[in-house]
Known about the structure:
- The chain is α+β, with helices and mostly antiparallel strands.
- Helix content is 42%, strand content 19%.
- The chain is built from 31 helices and 29 strands.
- The protein has a 4-stranded antiparallel sheet. Strands 2-3-4-5 form a 4-stranded antiparallel sheet, with no helix packed on it. Strands 6-7-8-9 form a 4-stranded antiparallel sheet, with no helix packed on it.
- A hairpin with a 3-residue loop joins strand 26 and strand 27.
- It is flat, with a radius of gyration of 44 Å.
- Residues 11-15, 438-445 and 793-810 have low confidence and may be disordered.
Amino acid sequence: MLDRLWDPLDFVVEALGGLVKRCEDAAAVWSGRAHRRRIARGRPAPVRKRNRALYRLAAIASDRWRPGREAAERELLALWGATRDPEPVLELAKGRSLPRPLRVAVLELLEAGDESQAECARTLLADDDAEIARRARAVCATAAGPMLDALWESAGARWESPLRDVLLKNPNPPPPGTLDALWDDWLHGPDADGLTEPLLRWGRPATIAASCEPLTVAAVATDPDVLRRPPYRDALVDALSLPSTHSLRPIAMRKIRELGDPGLVDRLCERALTDGGSRRFCRKHRLAPRDEPRRALFFLITGQPEQYRALDPDGGLLSLAYAAASRDERARVREAMLAAGEFDLVRVILGDDRRVRVRDMSADETGYLAEQLAHRRAWDELWSLVLDLPLAAGSRLIGYFDDWAPRDGDARRLFELYRAARPEAVARGLRRLAETGWAERAWWPALRVPGRVNDLSFAPDGPFLAVGGADRTVRVLDVRTGGTVRVHGGFGSAVKRVLHVGDGTVVAGERTNRGQSRCRLVRCAADGEATLHVAPGSITSLALTGADGSHAATTAAGELLLGAPHGGPVEARRLDRFGVDVRHRPRQVVAHPATGRIAVLARDVHVIDPAAGTGSAVRPGDLGVRIAFAGADTVVHADQRGRVARLSLRDGRRGPARRVGTTALDGLAGLRALPHDDRLVVAGRRGPLHVVGAERLEPVDAEILHSRAGATCLAAAPGGEFLAVGHADGEIDLFDLRPRMLSRLVGRSPAEFGPGHLGLVDAALAVPATDGPARQVLGLLRECLHHRFRFDVATGGDVRTMADEHDIGL
């Protein structure tokens, strides 16, 4: 009875459920229509609401038994067609609620070239409907232009996907950024094999912005002229270093053989010295460098002794190659020769130019040579090797001698000094000398002149110092004794500038005083004084322009005076002819004798070529009280507050200004570049001298103390042996820089020294601060030099037979 009562109830419930579904379907369709109307009126609802309507319609359209399926399907297509937004399609596909008509509609848009639907291609490629998947594959395999770019952006270039696999079969190459990523994967990624065929089929290299561009050009280029260019020629060589399984290696091998370029073969052979793949290729195809010495070295290092013996039976070519080889290559040559056991390594290493070779030898080379010579008991050759080596290296080799000693008495005395010098003590003394800074003042009668010192100038050919004073005189002093050699008077005013031009001649310039309007440039020599030029104003600056004593001067009236050697006649030229604004007083003239360049400081720095009659200006900014050449193309300039900066003469660029010392200089007394050095000395009117590096303008030495305040001028000897500071009270501080110069030489071989260096060694030994280890090394060096120049040494002292840059005839 109850069962019969429930049947009508089930029918009613089922009917009510169907009615509810129909109402929901109608509501979904109505909602979709409402969204379409809002879109048509240009007032679309928020994306989230619109997508919810799409999801509801998709759920109804996907239920094949639902009564309102067809209406929902039509409304779904209409609503999606109003926006064609691919995002809902992708989201619907994740939930597997994408009706077939919608899939077909998206596919038709893809086939029509609508790149906005490219994101949906991955969904359609995996469709269960074989026809839809086939049509989608056809679209991706033939796409071009913007559609292809969009498909590659969707697929990505660095991960596996069905879409990427289809796109790799497309005959059209991907966009440049994607192509670069594919090339990079091919060269360095794990999936190189799968990329070889499409990349070579496309035949398009990576863009120039990609680091792998040269290798990709080497892979696809067929024009020999392109492959012979340096970056691509090197890329062919680099390709041989890839793993043996990489596809580029056989391509590079084939192209190298086809090119037959000797320059490429040379480059490949250089790589073969350190790379196994290149070495095997060269040996297989019998490749070798064109240069015969390099070929001999190549055969030996790469393990081809038969070819080496046929090419170089006497070892002469290998000796030449060894001299020019790098340190690593030399070590490999020695290893190869020891392994072969048939070569005279001593003859190969030393060659014909023994002394030049010895200077460049490493500790391993000298140690091996000493072992070989001691094994042969070639004691004379071993002793010659010791004398050609720096002191530290030579002291280490003395232990290889047994009871042998030189027969010559002088040589035996030096040999015993070497035996007595322990290597560690020599090394300690060399370190101490290398740390030697500025020597103390070594002159005990103090250098003094009456009155104020206006200017100083060292002679280029002797130990003499010219002094221009406020007492209207020029004095020439002997720096060894402090005595006055000569006094020149008769000047109408104070001597502002002096320049010692050598051969006992000084050029002096007057300055205006008490209304005096005319000043003279005067030649002062042993035969008296002679006026070279009369200027309507002070002589503002003097500079030596050549080793022959030629010089240049500037006047306050805007003249450039060019003097003949050794105080000969002068030629006056107007500075405005060289572009100098003569309204600004020329402050200083400096010269770079090695290049003949002259620079004049007025408001700007003017670089002048007197021979061509031309000049060019470089503006130094707010710096420019003193200038000095720090190189052929660089001028250093300073101001009164102690700021120093570098100025490039090539492009006019000024480097950052640096303040010298811990406090600003109270006025600038002088700026000098030390000859044969990379340092500058800056002197303020008070306080110590400051030594800075010419490159970075940073302090590189201890501050140099001088006697008192009131510094007026600064001078450096042309050879760099002395430095002098003049003062307002007439006193002159003289600094002996020879011990410091020697500290840069003691680490070199005695074979590189000249007779003039004996004076440097004696000067260093005369400095009381030279301690025990340093004194022992200097004594050993002095005996080495005496032994080397023993035929130039006479009783009672050294006879200088030749001069060098450090020899000033002391």
